[in-house]
Design brief:
five-stranded antiparallel beta sheet, 8 strands
Length: 355
């Protein structure tokens, strides 16, 4: 998921009874974002980042090591802070460990939900796992979690001005999503108005831990419904394909931006990818979108290009690759594109080797 979602999760956890301790907000927010330290690999090259992202720092070993490491650092900071105030006592290390585990584990749980995927078993197994349930940016999660953070952190005029500016920017982005139904745009605006009304009223300020727990539960229910909806849609799409005479090898049911009722579906058979739209509210829920796209992996140059040393990251990351092979005077030019997003070009000589 996007960094804002992870940050809102951490900030929301900090407002629950579990998180309301010294350095609780810092622990939760840092922990919720900590696995993304692998984003630093983007400065070393795009292909390296593709091969490393959502791997080591998102796998089971990191999930075991990162939380106690974060808790230890925060405990040392707390000890220094308390040393300056004789009456102060550091937060128990055990409580910081529990808080850090909850925050850090929330990160891979959310990253698994989208089509980019995550390698949960790293470094022991490099398999990718895909939830195909949430778009990488989900405004409805923002709205629910943002309610808690706005209520908790809007005590000054500067904070209020910041929230108004952020709300205006996000509303422009959300309501500007192509194809978003008018009803959902209105619902978004009403949701923001409700958050603003609750803050002006101020009646929930003394009960923020309960509000935080309720909003987090609602987010959990929303996510569960999206996961369940994706599974049901996948079954229906698979049957749709069989009824038309081809057996799907792989199916991706990708959520549409800001619309929880529609899915962008990709089906792979032996030779082609097929794009469809799945809409829970339409009379005909499954609708094809254009002709199939040839996979193009039946030429030896396709496998050779995917094995090129400078594309190890792409080869590790790609999920639905297509290959366009163009003969050249001294070899082949192979254009590879992942049907989700992204691509690469490789030049091969007559022996199918990179020059």
């Amino acid at each position: 998921m996007d960094p804002l979602t992870h940050t809102l999760v951490g900030a929301s956890l900090a407002e629950t009874r579990v998180g309301r301790v010294g350095l609780g907000t810092a622990t939760c927010v840092i922990g919720a974002n900590l696995p993304d330290i692998d984003a630093a690999t983007y400065f070393l090259g795009g292909d390296l980042a593709l091969g490393f992202r959502r791997g080591w720092t998102h796998g089971v070993l990191a999930m075991a090591v990162l939380p106690p490491l974060l808790a230890w650092v925060m405990h040392q900071v707390d000890r220094v802070r308390c040393s300056r105030t004789p009456a102060a006592r550091p937060v128990p290390f055990g409580r910081l460990v529990v808080l850090a585990y909850i925050a850090v584990l929330s990160h891979p749980a959310l990253d698994w939900m989208n089509t980019y995927g995550i390698r949960l078993l790293m470094p022991f197994d490099g398999r990718w796992f895909y939830g195909d349930a949430l778009f990488i940016v989900d405004p409805w999660v923002w709205l629910l979690l943002g309610t808690i953070v706005v209520l908790a952190h809007s005590g000054s005029r500067l904070q209020v001005a910041g929230w108004i500016a952020l709300g205006a920017i996000v509303t422009t982005l959300v309501t500007g999503v192509p194809g978003m139904p008018v009803a959902l745009r209105v619902l978004w605006c009403l949701g923001l108005a409700l958050v603003a009304g609750l803050r002006v009223w101020g009646g929930l300020q003394p009960r923020l831990p309960q509000v935080a727990s309720v909003c987090l539960v609602l987010v959990g229910l929303y996510v569960a419904s999206m996961v369940g909806g994706a599974q049901l849609a996948r079954l229906e799409v698979a049957q749709w394909a069989r009824d038309r005479g081809f057996e799907p090898n792989r199916i991706m049911v990708s959520p549409m931006p800001a619309d929880p009722f529609r899915r962008d579906v990709l089906i792979a058979d032996d030779l082609h990818y097929h794009r469809l739209t799945f809409d829970w509210l339409a009379p005909e829920r499954v609708r094809p979108r254009g002709p199939g796209t040839a996979i193009g992996d039946d030429h030896p140059a396709a496998a050779a290009a995917l094995a090129a040393p400078n594309l190890k990251g792409f080869a590790t990351w790609t999920r639905f690759p297509t290959f366009r092979i163009e003969p050249q005077d001294d070899g082949f030019r192979v254009t590879m594109t992942d049907m989700r997003f992204g691509g690469a070009v490789v030049e091969l000589d007559g022996n199918l080797e990179p020059p």
